[in-house]
Amino acid sequence: MSGSSCARRGTGRPRTVASIRHLVPRLANENPPRGYRRIHDELVILGIPIAASTVWEILKTAGVDPAAHRVTVTWADFLRSQAEAILARDFVETVTLTGVRQYILVAIHHASRRVHVLGTTAHPTHAWVTQAVRNLLMDLHDAAHLARVRFLIRDRDAKYPSLISKTLSSAGITTVLTDVRTPRTNAITERWVKTLRAELLDRTLIWNETHLRHALHGYERHYNLHRTHRSLTTAAPLRALPPTLEPGQIERLTAHRHDCLGGILHEYQRAA
């Protein structure tokens, strides 16, 4: 039989289907610690018949580094992956009209963005700070939120007593200290401090500590129950978005304004 009468046959192994060639690099990028053998095992669980050597070849062709070079957990990775378990804490300073410097201690939960104003004082002694932290732990326990908190981020301010880390540790919380002069490592708290100044402290004449405490209480309520957050798809930390109105309801919509803190903040609600 002549060669011209025979159909030519290709040589070598058939090319892996496109869906698998796309899936293998995805598994590697989504699971940095996994080498090609672990990725092969995952494919087997999915019912995909493939050799481990083929997985290695796909990764090499796609330019995906071996697992040892892909396992680099950045600070941003840590914050993003552990947001539900992170509280961040910081002091905010302001001066009253009488010239007294006040220190406001705040904490914010990364995932929900809920803010806890722990107190304000002109004398942030170690005893005062320790009691404020204990009060926070009791509040978290009473709200059944303590169990989910595993890390507390703070700077190296000398106003924090060394015993605080032990108090937190006894509650199952690890203290994470930020580097000196690197505010970006506590970026969520830093942004909240800027918001507090822009929306309250820079727009209010604070007479004394009692007045400041009253203003902070009102702002904490507004922030947690009404202020929208893009990271929460415009919901508030303690308030979900309401159902979307139907076109007919929008045509008849009437909104009422509620003034907060002497009118420097406004909240709007639909009329019943």
If you had to describe this structure to a student in words, what would you say it looks like?
The chain is an alpha/beta fold and 272 residues long. The chain has 2 domains: 14-70; 78-232, 2-Layer Sandwich (Nucleotidyltransferase, domain 5). Helix content is 38%, strand content 17%. The strands form 2 sheets. A 5-stranded mixed beta sheet has the order 3-2-1-4-5, with helices on both faces. Strands 6-7 form a two-stranded antiparallel ribbon. The protein starts with 17 loop residues before the first helix and ends with a strand. Residues 1-10 have low confidence and may be disordered. One of its GO terms (biological process) is DNA integration. Residues 79-245 form the Integrase catalytic domain. This is Integrase. One of its GO terms (molecular function) is nucleic acid binding.
Brief synopsis:
It comes from Kibdelosporangium phytohabitans. The protein has helices at residues 18-30, 36-45, 52-61, 67-70, 75-81, 126-142, 163-170, 187-199, 209-225, 247-251; strands spanning 86-95, 101-109, 115-121, 151-154, 174-177, 255-260, 265-270. The protein is α/β, with parallel strands linked by helices and 272 residues long.
